Amino acid sequence: MMNTEQLLIQIKNLLHENPDLTEIAETSLIGIIENLKTRENSLELQAISKLEGRNFFVDSYQRGYKWKPQQVEALLNDIDEFEPENENEFYCLQPVVVKRKPVQHEGKESVFWELIDGQQRMTTIFIILSYLLNKPFFTLRYETRTESSQFLNDMVQLNHIEQAPELSHIDNHYFYQAYKTAQDWFKTKSQEERDIWRDKLLHKTKVIWYMVLNNHKKDSQQHSIEIFTRLNQGKIALTDAELIKALFLQSVMKAYHHPEIAKQKQFEMASQWDLIEQTLQDDEFWAFLSPHKGTNKHTRIELIFDLLAEESKDKQQLNHKTFLYFANQLKNASSCQIEEQWTKVLQGFHRLAEWFKEDQLYHLIGFIIGQKIKTINVLWQESQKAKRDQFVQILKSHIQRDYLERLFKGNKDSTRLDFTKVDYLSSSQRPRIIGLLMLFNIYINEKHKTRFSFRAYNNCQWDIEHIHAQQSLDLPSDAQREIWLNEQKAIIEAVPESYKGLLDTKLIVYQQALAVELADTESLKKEYLDELSKIVGDVKEAIQTLDNLCLLPASVNRSIGNQIFLTKRQRIVDFENKGKFEKEHQGKFIPLATQQVFSKYFSDDVSQMYKWDEIDRSNYKAQWLECFKGYGLDLGSKA
What we know:
Blueprint: H1 4-17, H2 22-39, E1 42-47, E2 55-58, H3 69-81, E3 91-105, E4 108-117, H4 119-133, E5 139-142, H5 146-154, H6 170-187, H7 191-203, E6 205-211, H8 220-232, H9 240-255, H10 259-280, H11 283-289, H12 302-310, H13 321-330, H14 335-357, H15 359-370, H16 376-384, H17 388-408, H18 429-447, H19 454-458, E7 462-466, H20 478-494, H21 497-515, H22 521-536, E8 549-553, H23 554-560, H24 565-581, H25 592-598, H26 614-630
Parallel strand pairs: 2-4, 2-5, 3-6
Antiparallel strand pairs: 1-6, 3-4, 7-8
Helix pairs in contact: 3-6, 4-6, 9-10, 9-13, 12-13, 12-14, 14-15, 15-17, 15-18, 20-21, 21-22
Protein name: DUF262 domain-containing protein
Domain GmrSD restriction endonucleases N-terminal: 54-249
Pfam family, one: GmrSD_N
């Protein structure tokens, strides 16, 4: 192979002999130079065999080697259990972040690779290969810890290593533990099994090799520390999205022959990437796509890449599966192929944006994902094959068949839900009822051409609230009695004039009995409540029906307590007003259907506002049945 100087001389001689090639050479050389500039700030998949003879070092800002025997065994077992189905399959290790660095070594300058991230895994591979090959496969040194480097590289040559005095050093202790773990693990294997495992590691195992550009404007070590801190603060490793972004930008520079066009394309891609990420940072947007804590990603754009990768027929569960899919798609890709892949990314984003923008799709998809009826991956696949109206019908059928019919008609795995008898305290039925109340609120929002906020919903803890509940007779403290008495006076003010005198009298008798501490105060209080019940409705009747339930934030529900309709109505109105003006109440919202229940919006003829009566409940029930019918479930007279 020619050295760089010989190559340059050959190019110079060729141009001297063929001056007509000068213009072509200039364009080509500019492209090569631009490519070289970005070469170190790139990534690729490297087989472990390609690391042979390389020099690595770990700088002083990093902690020492800390892998425990269980972690070493896990790596040994993972590679052992990996069975490639064809010659192109490989086991993928987590990313290794490196920086090229000239280092004085054995009296001359050598190229070393600084391990910024991934040093624990690379050290383990070094130890395992040292044991299997009985010699170092590559060199590895720890900066400022000379004794650790010496021990690590000489470990295979030591006899009775467990008695070596160097083991008192903490690094060496962990090195030895890892070496002994590998030794014990391979002792149970035949020579043939060892050879198979070694070949898997060397030729069927690849590492995501991420090379960062040397920043000549900064101190080299400070630059490395900044990268290390970013990767290890909060234990957030390089995400697939970050790796894929580097892949696209790197592929562009390789595929486009004109550097100016390549730079322009990179800028265009980076700008579009930022716009997508910025849009997905809208919590209203994100909440309907990813409502569950376990599905949230550090980089939201990764969702699009996951969905696109899921379209492939490869269903293998691999580390960094999404990244590997795109690495395969972009390998030696032409500019047209890169453009095609990037167009798919943009189209994927626009599809999610359409789902968010269009109210009907937004509500249907948000509910289905939120209630775990179907995953976003399933909905994505279904939307591929259907036109907009067909997709809407598919979504509605999911709510009908996979949700409502299972709740109300029952199946082998679930207990049937009864509209007229709801066990809201049951651990199995409670989340179902909250889900139904959420669906009803979505239906009411759609009727009013407003949007249900999945963000606000996801940020609240929710309670099932009885619209009309029986008042508690227990008032253990003087302060509670005082609050209760004031509430009763407000209730009496709100009832029709013809009832006020009798209620006033009974409440005064109860107050007087309290003042002189008579023994029968509770019976007097019960007399008052019985009379009040005759006026505001029989609260014992039909209390556990779906048409007597609504949805409230848990904090609001606790503040309301077990009160009658009139008291609850006033407190909810107060809470709504506070939510508009007081910071501590903002972010908690009263759902639209609940607001309408307590304003009697569903009742055609409102003659009074102090009780929830049979007519109110009947009108409310009719809205529920219309809601279910809209999703294909007709309960009719059964409800």
